[in-house]
């Protein structure tokens, strides 16, 4: 059974001379508590736990200095726990985002706009552009097609005879930092098909000679 003093929404100080009803007094005696200070720990506007400081031997009269010290200590603990939870939440958000981006159809590249460093490469990006990543040319390759905060472009890799459509946008990353997210999609088959259609339009199907 939850003790009565863990239902409080504010700091609770019970000294040896505190006025308690019979049920509360019995609850304290069963737990062998003579005096107690209960301080709620609030994280994200919600009471997640309580810090309890008990005296089991004597009916202590808590001094103002003691209450102030314990309250300050709990505030420090509260800040540490809040940061830890936020950090874990950030890590969880990043892991979820990484899973999503690893399973999209294109190659994804995220660049920090403040430092210029690469923040994220999905599985497809690491595999498809392994050579460019090793040579350190991937950023120049992508940035050559960047014209604004949001837009699209086209990247041709003649050495591999591959074509990619590039889509890019400026956004905030999971930690709030400004980044550019780029997605590249292989459109080589579409390019080959377009070239074939153009060839058929301008040449004779049987002779291969220009018909115009």
Offer a few descriptive terms.
3-stranded antiparallel beta sheet, 5-stranded antiparallel beta sheet, alpha+beta, 212 residues, 8 strands, single chain, 6 helices, rod-shaped
Q: Shape, please? A: rod-shaped
**Radius of gyration from the alpha-carbon trace, in angstroms:** 33 Å
Distance, first to last CA: 93 Å
Residue stretches low in confidence (pLDDT < 50, at least 5 long) are: none
Percentage of residues in strands: 25-35%
Mean pLDDT over all positions = 83
Spatial order of the strands in the main sheet? Answer: 5-4-8-7-6
Element order: H for helix, E for strand? EHEEHEEHHHEEEH
Instruction: Give the helix tally.
Output: 6
| Class from secondary-structure proportions | alpha+beta
Explain what this protein looks like in three dimensions.
Strands 5-4-8-7-6 form a 5-stranded antiparallel β-sheet. Strands 1-2-3 form a 3-stranded antiparallel β-sheet, with helices on one face. It is an alpha+beta fold. The chain contains 6 helices and 8 strands. The protein starts with 11 loop residues before the first strand and ends in a 10-residue tail after the last helix.
């Amino acid at each position: 059974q939850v003790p009565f003093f863990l239902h409080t929404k504010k700091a609770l100080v019970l000294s040896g001379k505190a006025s308690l009803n019979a049920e509360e007094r019995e609850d304290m005696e069963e737990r062998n508590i003579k005096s107690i200070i209960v301080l709620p720990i609030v994280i994200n506007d919600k009471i997640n736990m309580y810090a309890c400081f008990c005296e089991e031997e004597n009916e202590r009269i808590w001094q103002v200095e003691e209450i102030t010290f314990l309250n300050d200590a709990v505030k420090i603990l509260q800040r540490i726990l809040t940061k830890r939870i936020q950090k874990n939440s950030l890590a969880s958000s990043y892991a979820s985002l990484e899973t999503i981006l690893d399973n999209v159809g294109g190659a994804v590249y995220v660049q920090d706009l403040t430092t210029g460093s690469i923040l994220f490469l999905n599985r497809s990006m690491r595999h498809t552009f392994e050579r460019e990543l090793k040579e350190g040319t991937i950023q120049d390759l992508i940035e050559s097609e960047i014209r604004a905060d949001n837009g699209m472009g086209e990247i041709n890799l003649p050495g591999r005879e591959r074509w990619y459509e590039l889509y890019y946008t400026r956004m905030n990353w999971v930690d709030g930092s400004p980044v550019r997210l780029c997605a590249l999609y292989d459109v080589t088959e579409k390019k080959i098909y377009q070239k074939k259609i153009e060839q058929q339009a301008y040449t004779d199907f049987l002779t291969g000679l220009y018909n115009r």
